[in-house]
Amino acid sequence: MAVKPIPEGYHSITPFLTVRGADRAIDFYRRAFGAKELGRMHAPDGKTVMHAELEIGDSRLFLGDEVPGMDCASPETLGGSPSGIYLYVRDVDKVFRQAVDAGATVKRPLEDMFWGDRTGSLRDPFGHTWDLATRQEDVLPEEMKRRGDEFFRNMGGKKA
User: Fold this and answer.
1) How far apart are CA 65 and CA 68, in angstroms?
2) Cα torsion 60, 102, 159, 89: sign
3) C-alpha–C-alpha distance, residues 153 and 159, integer Å
4) Per residue in 69-83, pLDDT tens?
5) What's this model's pTM, rounded to 2 decimal places?
6) Is residue 26 a contact partner of residue 52, using CB atoms and an 8 Å limit?
7) Domain 16-155 maps to which CATH number in 3.20.20.20, 3.10.180.10, 1.10.287.1490, 3.90.1680.10?
8) Half-sphere exposure of 52 (CA within 13 A, CB side)
């Protein structure tokens, strides 16, 4: 049997998050997003998590501790993160509250957006940004453009 180039259960892109405190992060993702732990490998010191694998919804997430000297720094060390994860869930209101209760900080509260998603933005306790969303409406491209133009006009002097 031929080996599959993309293993069963994976998608083409699998994010890898570097955190300070991987054991705590795994616990947070379990409480906040219902993550299931699929595996965890420690360094020879028995403390540093070199690689952990979680399943959130139908997707995989890799994570590990920052490792000095290996060019693996967390957002806490770097002073923030320029990227984020967009997570679709069945009930965004419920999962958003669950994540805040687990220790996430609200960056942008939940709102219905012009592209058809109800979405809000959180920062997890490890510095990573998560945009949580539930699709509420399939919006045709012409309507999305009209709504988007109106949305950005109404932003006025606000930064996007």
Assistant:
1) 10
2) positive
3) 12
4) 888 899 999 999 989
5) 0.89
6) yes
7) 3.10.180.10
8) 27
